[in-house]
Amino acid sequence: MTLVLNDPLPIRPAAPADPRKQAHERAKLAKRLRRQVGQAIADYGMIEDGDKVMVCLSGGKDSYTMLDILLQLQKKAPVRFELVAVNLDQKQPGFPEHVLPEYLRSIGVPFTILEQDTYSVVKRVVPEGKTLCSLCSRMRRGALYTHAREQGFTKIALGHHRDDLVATFFMNLFFHAKLASMPPKLRSDDGEHVVIRPLATCREADLVAYADWKQFPIIPCTLCGSQENLQRKQVGRMLAAWDREFPGRVDTIARALADVRPSQLADTKLFDFLSLGRLGDAPLPDAHAWLAGDEASPLPEF
Ligand code: SF4
């Protein structure tokens, strides 16, 4: 047979996905997400009997998935707890107000839509060309915390996932010189609220696939026209490149966040290096004493 190079290649239709295989993969994905969320809830004591959990719903894939998985777990949970979805309508131009109420009614979940025009404030306060996200998120948090206090919520659930935790870790490392991430559970700075992140160990790729399968009515967070923080973008690109080159690296880093060895780092607040190997009880001289002779000797003329 002669191969004529100029002949167009026959166009073959893409093989239809095998429905049984697809159903199997989706069931596996749902099970994995339930297992990871259930494990995180248990490991970090995120939810207990009598909790009233405010599930913050932005309209993005992560918060939809969080609500969906929590609802599934609630049905068979060993404790009784309440879930209420709360969205803050920040009055961004073009925000499709009907989408979340319609969705939440369709699945029969109690919900509240708060309305606060943080958009105008952020636009007015942040200089032109600067990213709006930092102030916007702070204001959103303030509004949600106020609502949680007024309504007696005992936990506030946010949809950050494993990749958010790892990206935040590197942003803190590169730009703020500290080893810190977003914890799966924390007490708010004002001491009033307990914030939980049930998706803390879930891969973002899984959340994308799950949201795609479930066809959640996604509302983009960029209606305001703000660009994602440049530093976060850089870190995101770095992590994606690493994971392409060394598959599983982000997973390894995420696991390292839960396996910290203070004695193998250098933070004197976390590990008592001063007491290590002491010969006696005499007070140790401080740095000033150690450097006294050095400070007295001037540098040669240059
Ligand atoms: S993209 Fe817009 S709505 Fe989303 S956090 Fe940033 S400023 Fe706020």
Structural write-up:
By secondary structure, the protein is α/β, with parallel strands linked by helices. It has a single domain (38-260), classed as HUPs (Rossmann fold). Helices cover 46% and strands 9% of the residues. It has a 6-stranded mixed beta sheet with strand order 3-2-1-4-6-5, sandwiched between helices. Helix 2 links the parallel strand 1 (52-56) and strand 2 (82-89). Residues 1-10 have low confidence and may be disordered. The structure holds iron/sulfur cluster. Residues 92, 132-133, 136-137, 221-222, 224, 226 line the site of iron/sulfur cluster (SF4). Iron/sulfur cluster binds next to helix 5.
List keywords for this structure.
302 residues, alpha/beta, Rossmann fold, six-stranded mixed beta sheet, 10 helices, 6 strands, 46% helix, disordered N terminus, binds iron/sulfur cluster
Note the beta-strand portion.
5-15%
- CATH C-level class is Alpha Beta
Overall geometric form: globular
| Helical amount | 40-55%
Query: Averaged pLDDT, please?
Result: 91
Q: Give the helices and strands as they follow along the chain.
A: HEHEHEHHEHEEHHHH
Number of separate strands: 6
Q: What small-molecule ligands were found? A: iron/sulfur cluster
Please report the distance between the alpha carbons of the first and last residues: 83 Å
- For this structure, the CATH topology is Rossmann fold
- What's the CATH H-level homologous superfamily? HUPs
Describe the main β-sheet briefly.
Answer: 6 strands, mixed
